[in-house]
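User: What would this chain look like folded?
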Amino acid sequence: MKFKEIANRLTGFSTPVFGVSWNPPKLESEAAQRLITELEDKRVLFNPSDVEVPHHCVESIFQLRCILTGELKNLDRASNLAANINAMRAACRKFLDSVREDERIIRFGSDHGHYANWHFISAVGELRGVFGVHIAQVSAQYGINVEAPLSTILPGEPDET
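Assistant: Here's the prediction, encoded as C-alpha cells.
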C-alpha cells in the first residue's frame, strides 16, 4: 500500500507527512525502512489467528523485541520513530505478559473452543491493532510503502458520516 494512501487513513493524529513540511534525518529514514522491511516478514502480525501456534508466536515476539530494541539504540530518543518503536515494544511486553500469565494459554492456545484460545487470539488481535497504527504512522512520516500482507493490519478507511 502506498504511503500516501496510508497517510489519508490516519485521522486524529498530528503526523507530519513526508516531503510536505518535514524532511526526516537520513539515519531515521533508513531505520524506518529497515523496520518496515523486518515487520513485513513477521507472520505473527498478519497470519490468520486460527492458524497461529502460540509458542511460535511467543518466539517471534521475542525476536521482534530484539529488532525493535536494536533500531532504538541508534535513534534520538526524542524522535517520532523512537516513540513509535517504544509503543510497539510496549505492545510486545503486554502480549508476552498476557499469554505467559497462565501456562495453559500457550499450551492450549491453538485448541479451538478452549478458553486459552480465546485469550490467545485476543492478545494477538490487540498486538496487531497497536502495531497497525504505529506502522501507519511510520509509513506516513517517512514516506514508506507497506506491502501486503502486513498492510492488512493498518487502520481502515475512515467512515464517511
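The longest helix spans residues 115-142. If you want, I can go into more detail on any region.
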